[in-house]
Amino acid sequence: MAAVKACKILITGANRGLGLEIVKQLSEDSCQKRHIYATCRDPDGPKSEALRELVKKHPSVITIIRLDADDPCSIKESAKKVGSLVGENGLNLLVNNAGIVANGTIQTSSVEDMKNTFNTNVIGPLLIIREYLPILKTAAKFSGTPGMSCNKAAVINISTVAGSMTRMPSIYNQFPTLPYAVSKAGFNMLSVLAAEELKTDEILCMALHPGWVKTDLGGEEAALEPKDSVEGMLRVIGSLTEKQHGGFMDYTGETVTW
Ligand code: NAP
After folding, report:
1. Which of its termini does the chain have fewer beta carbons within 10 Å around, N or C?
2. Percent residues over pLDDT 70 in the chain
3. How many A from CA of 190 to the centre of ligand 1?
4. Average pLDDT, the chain
5. What are the pocket residues of ligand 1 if the criterion is a CB atom closer than 6 Å to any ligand atom?
6. What is the mean pLDDT of residues 144-149?
7. Helix (H, G, I), strand (E, B) or coil at 5
């Protein structure tokens, strides 16, 4: 059961994989004032069918919003729409989950894969944080409580140990995903610098590794089911305070070395 008590929550890449499971678990807990803005790039398309089915079960809790992390206009438009929906209390929790993987090594990585991964995994989240910052600030001010928590105002960046300078070299043979790893290392730095910028507004920001999970991205061989990864991540997210601000943790609550 999710320990997250945030009321207004936005998740990117919410139509499948970990994003969909996050929406599912958050919509099933008993938080009264909860509203989830489940964003995806093609709300009416076949890849969003499972999300649309979930909305049918929880129509008053989930709203689907179009957001393509590769398209600055769609990010801006989504922020405008969510801004008008959240009201005066603002947005409590932004989960930057959307991401893409690309395989490759120094010898084989294509320029296109390097650009695409950087675009979706780094530039997208940067613009998303920027556009949603006003309503995150509103939530931080509205809470009236000191300190930091995801119930007040927070940005959680779903990253990976593949973006860790210390962890990736030893798993590189098993996961030759250079474009992905380089972009996620950039995403990790984005998390650290965003934390630096957001601290005066008491908006918590950190990077979270979900484990190796059976999704389209993680593959069949992965160690974890989405349910178990997301249960762990929500437990961690629910427990965060200013002590973890600017940090990097995994779904079990262990610190990950940068
Ligand atoms: P997934 O099953 O492949 O799902 C990826 C999600 O991101 C989909 O909803 C996809 O939407 C969305 N997405 C991709 N590009 C997008 C864009 N330009 N704009 C908006 N949405 C976009 O992957 P996952 O395993 O759930 O991964 C979620 C996050 O966890 C990623 O950031 C990933 O790096 C991270 N992670 C996963 C694992 C793992 O083992 N699975 C491990 C470490 C970290 P479409 O359906 O439109 O493509």
Report:
1. N
2. 99
3. 18
4. 97
5. 12-13, 15-19, 40-42, 47, 68-70, 97-100, 120, 158, 160, 209-210, 212-213, 215-218, 222
6. 94
7. coil
Give the pLDDT confidence of 25-49 residue by residue, as tens digits.
999 987 778 999 999 999 999 999 9
The burial of 94, by beta-carbon neighbours within 10 Å (0-12 exposed, 13-18 middle, 19 or more buried), is given as buried
Instruction: Report how far apart, in Å, the C-alpha atoms of 113 and of each of 104, 177, 178 are.
Output: 9, 10, 9
Residue whose structure tokens are 């999704």: 215
Long-range contacts of 217-226 (CB under 8 A, 24+ apart): 217/17, 217/99, 217/100, 217/101, 218/17, 224/251, 226/17, 226/18, 226/20, 226/21
- Give the class (CATH, top level) of 8-250: alpha beta
Span from the CA of 246 to the centroid of ligand 1 (angstroms): 22
Global confidence as pTM: 0.98
Which residue has the CA at smallest separation from atom 34 of ligand 1? 99
- What are 239's two structure tokens? 């427990």
> Tell me, what amino acid is at 6?
A
Assigned token pair, 177: 């995903």
Q: How many CB atoms lie within 10 A of CB 21?
A: 24
Return the domain boundaries, the chain: 8-250
